[in-house]
Amino acid sequence: MLDPGLIAAENQPHYAEHRRDYEHLGHQLRRREIDVEGVVAQVMAFEVAVPSWALGTGGTRFGRFAGPGEPRNVFEKMEDIALVHQLTGAAPRVSLHIPWDEPDDLAELRQHAEALHLGFDAINSNTFQDQPGQGHSYKFGSLCHTDAAVRAQAVEHHLHVVEVGKALGSEAITVWLADGSNYPGQMHLRKSFERVLDGLRQVYAALPPAWRLFTEHKPYEPAFYATVVQDWGSSLLLAQHLGPQAACLVDLGHHLPKTNIELVVARLIGAGKLGGFHFNDSKYGDDDLTAGSIDPYQLFLVFNELVDAAVEGVEGFDPAYMIDQSHNLKDPIEALLQTVEALQRAYAQALVVDRAALSDYQDQNDVLMAEGALRQAYQTDVAPFVAEARQRQGGALDPVAAFRASGYRAAKADDRVTAAYVPPSSL
Ligand code: LRH
Ligand code: MN
Prior knowledge:
three-stranded parallel β-sheet, six-stranded parallel β-sheet, alpha/beta
């Protein structure tokens, strides 16, 4: 965590200018009968979970270029996430991956999180890698495997992940399965799906009443011919068969090029099965780039569907917002600060859509004016609203500038090399 005084000192020279921008935007939007304070309040309430696996430098099969001061374990990852939350006011929870982040002492990790004012969002299972000492390999799948012993092992893993989540205070499990095939004929396309459903039924049966199970679809990789949970339709079928505690998680990068992702979101909202998001962006495949970096209009159109559902009061609409990115070139903390900003902006833009006018234009099939209503909101520079929402929560007007001014990375580059890691319990 940073000394709050440092953030205030960083904000101070820019505050008057920010106020002018904020007032100016306020005037513009009041002319459009937009409730300015209402928008800022909603942006202040916006929260997104940070994935534990995004705090270290990511890589590809071609290489990884580690950066200075990377976290060495889940405790240090939590410290970095607490900083992202301190600077943005919008990242109060972490999404863990098991076994990557499984500590020896869960109670110690929970205490550490509480000390950092962080909570635990959906916890992620992992049957896409074989762990040392594992009885059966997941080479040919996990819950879809033709061998009952492998399926039982995969179910056991998911039950264990639920127990870890319960101990940490998480209330959801995200199930992304790499299960699939590389060649036609290799895998029975219907029976493999039936086996996955059967396995998830056993996991579903073990869920505490308040928990949710998110099914995450993905068209390909690591399977390059057929993935069992390949698309939103397969994910929706699973969630509908499993029951009310199951819903679909939309990873923005898990769609074939040119897929209308906001339409997928609208369909899942309509089915009452939109469970949550893994926000990121991509140009080609599952590139896990920073959200809004490639197609910010698409991100806005996704948030437009979310705000529309919230304004309408769609029953049971309560999606979990999480980031899922791999920071191969950017400093992971800076990339996350940039990501939270992009999400807050897309949300604020969606909040300033004149929905009454849009609905009239849609009813009158006034194509140009209907499109114009969305573009007007998208072209509104809501940055002063987002900055105001942050600074009202003790955050930074410019989080990346404050992070760089703090020297946090350089300090960690020293700490996390020289100093052996001392768990909080022994401090
Ligand atoms: C799969 C995925 C999934 C996570 C993994 C780190 O591509 O999106 O959500 O388990 O990335
Ligand atoms: Mn994902």
